[in-house]
Specification:
The protein is α/β, with parallel strands linked by helices. The chain is built from five helices and eight strands, in the order βαβββαβαββαβα. α3 links the parallel β5 and β6. The longest helix is centred in the C-terminal third of the chain and has 25 residues. The chain is globular.
């Protein structure tokens, strides 16, 4: 299957997670494109993985706008969502971003996963440093690469099962 991995990443950490997801999907035999949501002009993909960095408990505006575009399609295309941003051994913030439950429902997403992120204060702007100090977020790379790969392997298995079902029953109709 041809999979779009659309990712909104402010400082590159979430993009690296998207790249690892895409690599895992390619290793499983799928074709992948990794694009910023704003760069997706036409959706000619069989499936979508949409990820966003999370700041102050919210997905990026670009990822939310792309999710709105996907929601209008509602054509049965499989969609998975991921968030990245909490940092620390006990991630801060601990909860999923506030819009995730409604995104999962509106998109008919097969799932959502939050991955810990990376915080490098040196790359932050003044306002971002103020927020990081306020919530006492620790600096460091807290991404669990095995968890990312395991999650992506599950997506790859689901896509292969979809392919098998499609071969048995013919292609799924699109609206």
């Amino acid at each position: 299957m041809h999979v779009l991995v659309a990712v909104a990443s402010r400082h590159g950490s979430t993009r690296e997670i998207a790249d690892a997801v895409a690599e895992t999907l390619r290793d499983a035999g799928h074709t992948t494109d990794v694009l910023d949501p704003e760069d997706v002009e036409e959706l000619a993909h069989d499936a979508v993985v949409l990820g966003s960095s999370v700041y102050v408990g919210r997905w990026s505006a670009g990822a939310r706008a792309f999710a709105d575009r996907l929601a209008v399609l509602r054509d049965g295309r499989p969609v998975w969502l991921f968030s990245s941003g909490p940092v620390g051994r006990r991630p801060v913030p601990a909860d999923d971003p506030e819009e995730v439950p409604s995104l999962v429902e509106r998109l008919g997403a097969r799932g959502h996963r939050t991955f810990a992120g990376r915080l490098d204060r040196g790359g932050l702007g003044l306002a971002e440093r103020a927020v990081v100090s306020l919530v006492k977020a620790p600096q460091g790379d807290f991404r669990a690469w095995d968890d990312v790969r395991t999650w992506a392997e599950g997506i790859a298995r689901d896509l292969h099962e979809d392919e098998i079902r499609s071969l048995r029953s013919g292609p799924l109709p699109r609206a």
